């Protein structure tokens, strides 16, 4: 069964590699545009989608300028009860309040990760961000937009309000495995695929910057010799665009 899961995961990664390649490259160019223009970078996700957002923030080998846009109560499952996070995703107006109190400004890039893209929070986050002049990249499963109903008052999905959408190819229900002897499907893969898409996007952005003659502001591991000093220099040079150290 473990082998079946890994085969399914590999198959999904191969699909996003082959079918989303052009959009991943385009996303990297959008991020490179913002970095070159002294813009800021932000990532947002609710619940388990937040894991993929967190994976590109303060990350060895990653862009130092990527910041987590945090919404209290929906980052991970540490809130008690855990079901509160799911409820908050359906609250109208929350996204606007978060953006209004954040350091975002026109020209910045916001990556929004939401498996279904159907709840109010990710939809309104995209709508409000674009109204503020940000470029929005969505990482979502397009299948949900054709097989489920939106929970937003407009009936729209995250994918409808993005400058660019990366399709994770995850089937509705996020379960890759089934057994006749098990009542429910199992083996979710959305976090793995979303994280891979995020890291592929960051790699494309680094390459795009280098192609323009700009050294990408990358972090090194603090657990290798010289890494701490390297990161200190990056923090000093780009401190006005890094918010996870304030």
UniProtKB/TrEMBL annotation:
A Pfam family hit: SIS_2
Ranges of residues in domain SIS: 31-216
HAMAP family: UPF0309
NCBIfam families tied to this protein: PRK02947.1 (NF002805)
Family: Belongs to the UPF0309 family.
Protein name: UPF0309 protein JGB26_06655
Species lineage: Bacteria, Bacillati, Actinomycetota, Actinomycetes, Kitasatosporales
């Amino acid at each position: 069964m473990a082998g079946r899961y890994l085969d399914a995961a590999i198959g999904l990664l191969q699909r996003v590699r082959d079918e989303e390649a052009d959009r991943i490259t385009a996303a990297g160019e959008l991020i490179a545009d913002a970095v070159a223009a002294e813009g800021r970078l932000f990532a947002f996700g609710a619940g388990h989608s937040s894991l993929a957002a967190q994976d590109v923030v303060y990350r060895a080998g990653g862009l130092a300028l990527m910041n987590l846009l945090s919404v209290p109560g929906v980052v991970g499952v540490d809130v008690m009860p855990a079901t509160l996070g799911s409820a908050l995703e359906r609250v109208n107006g929350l996204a606007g309040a978060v953006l209004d109190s954040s350091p975002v400004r026109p020209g910045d890039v916001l990556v929004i990760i939401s498996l279904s893209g159907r709840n109010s929070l990710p939809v309104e986050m995209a709508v409000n961000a674009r109204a503020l002049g940000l470029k929005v990249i969505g990482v979502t499963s397009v299948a949900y937009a054709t097989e489920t109903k939106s929970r937003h008052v407009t009936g729209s999905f995250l994918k409808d309000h993005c400058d660019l959408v990366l399709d994770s190819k995850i089937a509705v229900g996020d379960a890759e495995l089934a057994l006749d002897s098990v009542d429910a499907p199992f083996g979710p893969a959305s976090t793995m695929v979303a994280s891979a898409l995020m890291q592929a996007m960051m790699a494309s952005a680094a390459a795009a910057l280098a192609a323009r003659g700009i050294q990408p502001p990358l972090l090194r591991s603090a657990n290798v010799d010289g890494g701490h000093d390297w990161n200190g220099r990056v923090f000093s040079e780009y401190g006005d665009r890094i918010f996870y150290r304030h």
